[in-house]
Amino acid sequence: MQLRSEEKQNPGYSCLLGKQVAACNLLTKQVTAGNLLTKQVSAFKLLSNKGASCNLLAEQVAGFSLLGEQVSGCYLLGEQVAGCYLLTEQVAACQLLAKKVTGCYLLTEQVAACQLLAKQVTGCYLLCQQFTGCNLLAEQFAGCNLIGEQVAGCKLPGKQVAGCKLLGKQVAGCKLLGKQVAGCKLLGKQVLASKLLYGGANRWRAAGHHADRCVQELVGQVSPMSTDLLN
After folding, report:
1. What domain range is 72 assigned to?
2. Residues 184/211, Cβ–Cβ less than 8 Å
3. Which branch of life, at top level (predicted)?
4. Cα 125 from chain centroid (whole Å)
5. Cα 18–23–27 angle (5° rounding)?
6. How far apart are CA 84 and CA 92, in angstroms?
7. Please, what is the angle between helix 2-9 and helix 11-198, to 10°?
C-alpha cells in the first residue's frame, strides 16, 4: 500500500521499482539458470564420472578379455604340458620297446648259440663214434697183423727149409773156396819156391804180390761167409 502511494506521489520511483523488479526477475532467472547450470555441471560431472566409469568398465572388460585369453593360454599350456607328459610316456614306451627288441635280438642270439652248441655236441658224439670206429679199425688191423704173423709163421718153415738149402749151397761154396784157398796157398808156396830159386827177379816179385792179394781177397770173402754160417 505504501508502494502504491509512493508510486502515485513519485512516478520515477515506480519506474525504478519496476526496473528493480525486472532486475529481481532477471536475477531470479539468472539464479534459476545458475541452478540449472549447476545441475548441468553436476550432470556433466556425473556424466564424466559415468564416462570414466565406462572407460574403467571398458578397461575392466578388456582386462577380463585379457584374463580370458590368459586363461585360454593356461588351458593351452596345460594341454601342452599334458602333451609333454604324453610325449614322455611315449618316449618311455619307445625305450621299453627298444629294450624288448634288444631282448628279442639277444634271445635270437642265444637260440643261435644253443643251436650251435647242439651242433657241436652232435659233432662231439660223431667224433666219439669216429674214435670208436678208429679203435675198432685198429683192433681189426691188430687182428690182421696177428693173422699176418700167423701166416708168416706158417711160411717160416718154408723159409727155413729154403734157408737150409741155401746153407747147403753156401757150405758147398765154402768147401770150394777152401779148395781155392788151398790152391792159392800152394801157388804162394810155388812162388816162394821160385823166389828162392831165382831170387830178386822183378817178375817173380810181381807174381808174388799178385798171389798175396789173391789170398787176402779170398780170406776176406771167407770171413763174411763164416759169419753167415754162424748166424
Report:
1. 2-230
2. yes
3. Eukaryota
4. 30
5. 150
6. 12
7. 110
pTM: 0.30
Alpha-carbon span 134 to 143, nearest angstrom: 14
Contacting residues for 207 by C-beta, under 8 A, at least 6 apart: 191, 194
**CB atoms closer than 10 angstroms to residue 207:** 17
- What is the distance between the alpha carbons of residues 116 and 187, in angstroms, rounded to a whole number? 92
119-160 pLDDT, tens digit each: 888 888 887 888 788 788 778 878 878 887 877 777 777 777
Q: Take residue 35 and report the three cell numbers written for it.
A: 541452478
Answer yes or no: are the C-beta atoms of 214 and 230 closer than 8 Å: no
pLDDT value, residue 97: 92
Name the domain count of the chain: 1
* Structure-block grid coordinates of residue 46: 556425473
Report the alpha-carbon distance of residue 85 to residue 95 in Å, rounded.
Answer: 15
Phi, psi dihedrals of residue 201, rounded to the nearest 5° = -70, 135
Ranges under pLDDT 50 in the chain: 1-3, 229-230
Q: Are 186 and 214 in contact (CB under 8 A)?
A: no
Residues 215, 188 contacting (CB under 8 angstroms): yes
CA-nearest of 184, 186, 187 to 215 is 184
Distance CA(169)–CA(177), nearest Å, equals 12
Return d(Cα 146, Cα 157) in angstroms, integer: 17
Which sign, positive or negative, has the C-alpha torsion 177, 179, 184, 189?
positive
**Helix (H) / strand (E) containing 231:** none
Kindly state the cell numbers that stand for 201.
827177379
Query: Tens digit of pLDDT for each residue in 25-45?
Result: 888 888 888 888 888 888 878
